[in-house]
């Protein structure tokens, strides 16, 4: 059954917002290489190219690329491909990894997944199907793969799981390997067993924060909708996500914006609201508030940023205590200060200052803006979003189980 979107008086996403975002992404195109940059001062990379391509697809602006440019972009992406179906950027250097939590295999799987998705968005022939040296693409092997993670940091460990499931779905769709359906379903069965009936979110062997559990859960939900499986405890997911929204409208703690966390929570709310009408007014109000906040994160160049401001509390200890016991309304006075430092997607060539427009934040902010309108039951989306057709970041379906 298709979701019915009710009229809403406010228009939060104008066509001009999308047009300006397209202009920004296109400004990052590097004619000499055929790829895109993460930010204007960075070289073209496979990941940044995928961000821009997927962003242009979302707002139906792929057509703004000439056929020659599209061919060059496909060539640029395919230069990073290997016979086993994996991808590696020629500029990748282990010394440029910013995060100490990420291993080399993480970047290989991440880059592979993004390149697969970008090539699909460009209507290019699929890269080779993945070959795995272990048996993670089998019914028995995928359970072993999932149980091999420590899950001490569910937010982190859920990412490679998302990459694997996305690649399996890619090979099922693009290479016609129907045997992978059972593998994907086995993974979802396992994930069901690690969901908390109290919060609706991930519950592994270690206690993690509600924010951490929310981010982990988000990484799995694409595949439930892809396989037409309702997500359990949708009402508890709504409760948890709403409880994480800050007074500034986003889901990023003291920072007024965190590219991933904001998208994670908004997407979960949008998906859960397709499964139940529970707290629909609260969800609508939260989405409208988030939309207002997201729009403040754009720059004059049309791009979006990770964060422009942070909240400084005059009594941090009291603030933390009140938040912990659920008394946010009693949090002492605070002020906003300029966000300092760099923003990075774990790799030096995917970094910029916190308030600088970048390809990744612009893509995620645009997806999030569209999802706020879906969660608010708005009918004013212009242009109509072209969400990813393969389950991954940017994927959304309006199919509901109500």
The span between the termini is: 8 Å
Report the structural category. mainly alpha
Low-confidence runs of at least 5 consecutive residues: 1-12
* Arrangement of strands in the largest sheet: 1-2-3
Largest sheet: 3 strands, antiparallel
Strand content: 5-15%
Gyration radius, in Å = 20 Å
Report helical residue fraction.
40-55%
Mean pLDDT: 91
Q: Kindly state the number of beta strands.
A: 7
Task: Specify the number of helices.
Answer: 13
Shape: globular
Order of SSEs, N→C?
Answer: HEEEHHHHHHHHHHEHEEEH
Structural features, described:
With 402 residues, the chain is mainly α. The chain contains 13 helices and seven strands. The chain has helices spanning 15-27, 46-58, 67-78, 104-121, 139-147, 154-174, 180-192, 210-226, 234-244, 259-272, 280-295, 316-324, 359-375; strands at 29-30, 35-37, 44-45, 309-313, 334-338, 342-344, 351-353. It has a three-stranded antiparallel beta sheet with strand order 1-2-3. A hairpin with a 4-residue loop joins β1 (29-30) and β2 (35-37). α2 packs parallel to α4 (104-121). The protein is globular and about 50 Å long. The N and C termini lie close together (8 Å). The model is unreliable at 1-12 (pLDDT under 50).
Keywords, please?
402 residues, three-stranded antiparallel beta sheet, two-stranded antiparallel sheet, disordered N terminus
């Amino acid at each position: 059954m298709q979701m019915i979107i009710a009229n809403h008086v406010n228009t939060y996403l104008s066509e001009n917002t999308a047009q300006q975002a397209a202009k920004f992404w296109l400004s990052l195109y590097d004619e000499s290489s055929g790829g895109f940059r993460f930010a204007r001062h960075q070289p073209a990379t496979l990941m940044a190219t995928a961000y821009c391509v997927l962003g242009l697809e979302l707002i139906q602006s792929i057509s703004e690329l000439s056929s020659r440019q599209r061919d060059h972009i496909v060539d640029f992406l395919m230069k990073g491909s290997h016979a086993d179906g994996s991808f590696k950027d020629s500029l990748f250097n282990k010394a440029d990894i910013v995060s100490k939590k990420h291993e080399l295999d993480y970047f290989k799987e991440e880059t592979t997944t993004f390149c697969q998705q970008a090539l699909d968005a460009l209507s290019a022939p699929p890269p080779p199907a993945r070959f795995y040296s272990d048996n993670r693409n089998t019914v028995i092997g995928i359970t072993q793969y999932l149980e091999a993670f420590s899950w001490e940091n569910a937010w982190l460990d859920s990412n490679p799981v998302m990459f694997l499931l996305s690649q399996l779905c890619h090979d099922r769709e693009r290479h016609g390997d129907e045997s992978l359906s059972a593998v994907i379903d086995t993974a979802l069965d396992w994930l069901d067993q690690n969901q908390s009936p109290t919060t609706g979110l991930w519950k592994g062997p270690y206690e993690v924060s509600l924010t951490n559990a929310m981010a982990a859960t988000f990484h799995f939900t694409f595949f439930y909708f892809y396989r037409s499986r309702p997500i359990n405890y949708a009402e508890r997911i709504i409760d948890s996500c709403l409880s994480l929204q800050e007074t500034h409208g986003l889901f990023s703690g003291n920072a007024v914006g965190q590219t991933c966390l904001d998208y994670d929570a908004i997407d979960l709310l949008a998906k859960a609201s397709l499964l139940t009408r529970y707290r629909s007014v609260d969800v609508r109000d939260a989405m409208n508030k988030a939309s207002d906040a997201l729009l403040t994160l754009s720059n004059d160049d049309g791009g979006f940023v990770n964060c422009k401001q942070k909240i400084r509390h005059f009594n941090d200890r009291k603030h933390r205590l009140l938040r912990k016991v659920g008394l946010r309304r009693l949090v002492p006075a605070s002020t906003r200060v300029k966000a300092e430092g760099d923003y990075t997607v774990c790799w030096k060539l995917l970094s910029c200052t916190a308030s600088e427009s970048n390809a990744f934040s612009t893509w995620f902010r645009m997806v999030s803006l569209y999802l706020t309108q879906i969660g608010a039951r708005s009918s004013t989306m212009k242009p109509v979003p072209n969400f990813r057709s393969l389950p991954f970041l940017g994927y959304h379906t309006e199919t509901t189980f109500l």
